[in-house]
Amino acid sequence: MRVTLERILVFPIKSLDGVEVRTGTITAGGFLEHDRVHAILDADGKIVNGKRDARIHRLRCRFDPTFREVTIAEQGSAAAVQGGLGEPERLNAWLTGYFGFPVALHGDPERGYPDDREAFGPTIVGRSSLDEVARWFPNLGIDAVRRRFRSNLELDGEDMPAFWEDRLFGEAGTLKPFGIGNVRFLGHNPCQRCVVPTRDPDTAAGIPGFQNVFMERRRQTLPAWVESSRFNHYYRFAVNTSIPPTEAGKQLRVGDEVGPYSESW
Length: 265
What we know:
The chain is an alpha+beta fold. It folds into two domains: 175 residues, M1 Pyruvate Kinase, Domain 3, CATH 2.40.33; 70 residues, no CATH class. The chain contains four helices and 15 strands.
């Protein structure tokens, strides 16, 4: 089966809207350029994200082509703020007013703000897996599922089964090498999810019982070939990865093939 990279999403400000790109450069820090390189921090330096404050879901943002400027607005409101990410004073004042406590945008282009400092690479999901989850929740389409789970790389292939991406990790204590194009990846584990996917990405309204339904359906549909020991619970979806330092400067491109890593690709 030929599986290819069909979508690349980066999230320049952690917990805010993603941006679809056609290519993605691997940074020296082992993540996609522009992905989660900024975060909203409170006065104690703690990240303000969807796990902590559901109001963040109501923020819409739009970036300029260079990712140096952003426009932020509240969902359904005409009021907006525009500012540079390098000089975010206007943005900080607006966000402080929105949340009601002091916050500021910070950038870390070397390390970024990943949830996992070991599996800090792009998260990977299959298009067929997103379709399957959308079937579990009839009121959600694939775009809504995509926005809830916020994965970086989406794979697709003819007759690709749901959860094909679970082939990209192995037993506990191992890292599974694979390639996308000429970029070497290491697969870590199925990603443990938080409260964010249970909420509407525009309104923050929750779906009652979302987590329980997801876990039961995930258990029922777990492929026979999957490394089931990695599922201490079934609220896991997509694959966490890391990228070795040797890959810095390489590019991922929509259409790249997925397979065993090879220097000749």
